[in-house]
Amino acid sequence: MNPGTIFAVVLIAAGAFWAYRFIGTPHGEGMFVAKASGALFDLGLDVERLPDEAQKKFFREGHAAYEATKNRPRKTRYNAKFIAMAFFAWYGVGYRRMDPKAFLREGVLAESIGKMRAWARKEPELNEAAEIAVKKVFDYLYQSFETMQAPKETILEAQLTLLGIMKDTEPK
Predict the structure, then answer these.
(1) Are 104 and 44 in contact (CB under 8 A)?
(2) CA 120, CA 14: separation in Å to the nearest integer?
(3) Please, what is the end-to-end C-alpha distance for the chain in angstroms?
(4) For 26-30, 96-100, 130-134, which range has the lowest pLDDT when averaged over its residues?
(5) How many CB atoms lie within 10 A of CB 117?
(6) Quick one: which of 19, 74, 83, 113 is 20 to 30 A from 167 by CA?
(7) Is the whole model's pTM more than 0.85, yes or no?
(8) pLDDT tens string 18-71
């Protein structure tokens, strides 16, 4: 199968899952959580592949954020990307029972730095949350490189690459 077909099948399956998952939930809440899930997918994390405990936490947090802001005017409601960034950082670097299968590909943690900062450039209200999540991911990766069982040159190269990502994507 070509990559386009695989992507289409995955997209249809994810849509079917969300349609099934949100039957019985208020439409607005379902849409909010689906947007947060989509943002997580953009960061490289698939909610469907999360361990049950982490998946439940994601839906609890999505529900709580929706409930807290649902009666506000549309422009002042909670942005689903806030949930995605905070949850991504928690799962990727803070969750002790993290299952790497939930990530869509290798290198997602480093890639997420650029994605979160790109969101913040387009939506300035995300800037503070993006930088908090980026710092968590950066610190985790940088420290992980220091404890790798690899030649010093390889470790230094990985750290320099990470620093390059931080510099190339830093807020303007």
Answers:
(1) yes
(2) 26
(3) 41
(4) 26-30
(5) 22
(6) 83
(7) no
(8) 665 555 455 678 888 899 999 999 999 999 999 999 999 999 999 998 888 888
User: 3-state SS of the chain: helix, strand, coil percent to 5?
Assistant: 80, 0, 20
Both structure tokens of 102: 């939930």
Q: Which CA distances in Å does 106 have to 18, 101, 110? A: 25, 10, 9
**CA atoms within 13 Å, Cβ hemisphere of 28:** 13
Q: Distance between CA 64 and CA 134 in Å, rounded?
A: 23
- The answer to whether 69 touches 77, Cβ cutoff 8 Å, is yes
| Interatomic CA distance for residues 94 and 87, integer angstroms | 10
Cβ atoms < 10 Å from Cβ of 152: 7
Domain extents for the chain?
Answer: 3-169
Place of tokens 């010093």: 152
Output the six-digit token pair for 9: 């099948």
Average pLDDT rounded to a whole number, residues 1-21: 64
Name 45's bridge partners.
Answer: 103
Structure tokens at 6: 């695989």
